Predict the 3D structure of the following.
Amino acid sequence: MPKMKSKKALMKRIKISGSGKLIRHSAYTSHLAPHKTHKQKRHLRKAGTVHPTDYKRIKYLIQK
């Protein structure tokens, strides 16, 4: 059976940290941005980690 390919679209959106956590960027940053508050846009700039409930599913998609 052939090896499973990793999903390249997902690989471009997620980075793996040194400890193995999956780092992702926040959504809702550019579309309809003018009506969002400065505080909201500031918090959205910061990258976050993938939620533990999604971790197993995403890890499976980016395996090589």
